[in-house]
Amino acid sequence: MSYSELKGLYHLRETIGSGGFAKVKLAYHSLTGEKVAIKIMDKRSLGEDLPRVKTEIAAMKELCHQHICKLYQVIETTDRFYMILEYCPEGELFDYIVAKDRLGEDEARIFFRQIVAAVGYIHNQGYAHRDLKPENLLLDEDQNLKLIDFGLCANPQGGMEKHLFTCCGSPAYAAPELISGKEYLGAEADIWSMGILLYALLCGYLPFDDENIPQLYKKIQSGKYDTPSWLSLESKELIASMLQVDPKRRITVGHLMSHPWLLSGYDISVEWHSKYSWKVDEDCITELAVHYGKSRSEMEAEVTLWNFDYLTATYFLLLEKKQKGRPVRLI
Ligand SMILES: CN(C)C[C@H]1CC[C@H](N2C(=O)N(C)Cc3cnc4ccc(-c5cc(Cl)c(O)c(Cl)c5)nc4c32)CC1
Q1: Which of 7, 59, 98, 218 is most buried by its number of CB atoms within 10 A?
Q2: How many beta carbons lie within 10 A of that of residue 6, not counting itself?
Q3: Separation of CA 292 and ligand 1 centre (Å)
């Protein structure tokens, strides 16, 4: 494959994964040398999944947070979509849990605080993810979690109709109201999935599981699950507050942030605000202005268009370099 649209902008390397209708390749951003992940989708093979891609791109342009995989650039051609994304070298949280069998409460708490921060931010922005599961949480080089795959997310303000469950991912994380096809609130369904997630982190297996899907649905709708002996009383209470069959009795992400189990050892509630500000970084603007031979005010005006073009990618990757203590320099 030529991928000629990327020539000169990114140096393509090996395929690092594939997710359904997409191929994900490692690449280097040519102006900063920083690694990126490029999600490549062929329009012809997308078929009815095309709206999912547009949903994901639109959502990721709005969502800018330290625990959400950063979208740097979008390239659309007649045949393909390319999404240039933040690289997460340590792969999926799912594989991390499998490798360790299950996590201790302290380690699970570190991860769960990050998940609550990401979901709190998304809900505050008026979105719901609707496909929260360990396969959609990646680890960066500092073992921080990055949420991915916004193809099923809803933006209720955008008038997204009730989502038919059948086209979603794994049913094991789906809330009872989603399964029974009732009208539901995405935010409430996300809290249920987070309950399943926390259970999986602490136990290493799922609270509701069955090869037979109708059987699985019955178990989910019963809301009955076993709690192994190693779970502390507080973690059992927290999981129970999320795995409430009645969505109106379910804890909200706001209350999650100051739940005793999440506070233990921290004494500060979850810091969910984005560390990114839409105010541009002066050093990055200066370096860009020098490189492109423009005035700083011209450069700032162009960057703040946030076109998610090569300039947007270069700005964010320069900012990454600065935040990692590397020189704010373009090659
Ligand atoms: C099974 N899944 C639903 C897809 C799988 C695809 C490969 C990916 N990956 C890997 O599997 N590594 C082993 C390396 C890796 C490194 N950095 C990545 C950065 C971003 C993404 C990514 C992938 C998709 Cl499908 C997205 O929608 C978004 Cl927003 C982001 N995937 C990455 C990724 C993990 C997930």
Answers
A1: 59
A2: 18
A3: 32
Contact 163, 156 (CB under 8 A): no
Closest among 191, 198, 57 to 120, alpha carbons compared: 191
> CB of 167 within 8 A of CB of 115?
no
Is there a catalytic annotation at residue 131? yes
Hey, whose CA ends up nearest to atom 24 of ligand 1? 149
Amino acid letter at 82? Y
CA distance 284 to 297: 12
What's the ipTM? 0.98
pLDDT mean over 36-44: 95
Which ligand 1 atom is the nearest neighbour of the CA of 19? 4
Per-residue pLDDT for 36 more than 60? yes
Q: Is the pLDDT of residue 310 over 70?
A: yes
Measured in Å, residue 136 CA sits from the centre of ligand 1 at 8
Q: Which amino acid is at 37?
A: A
Residue nearest to atom 14 of ligand 1 (CA): 91
The 3-state DSSP class for residue 278 equals: coil
Q: pTM value? A: 0.94
Number of H helices, E strands in the chain: 13, 7
Model pLDDT, residue 268: 86
- pLDDT tens digits along 251-267: 999 999 999 999 998 87
**Residue whose CA is closest, atom 35 of ligand 1?**
19
* Cα dihedral 228, 229, 232, 233 in deg (nearest 10): 90
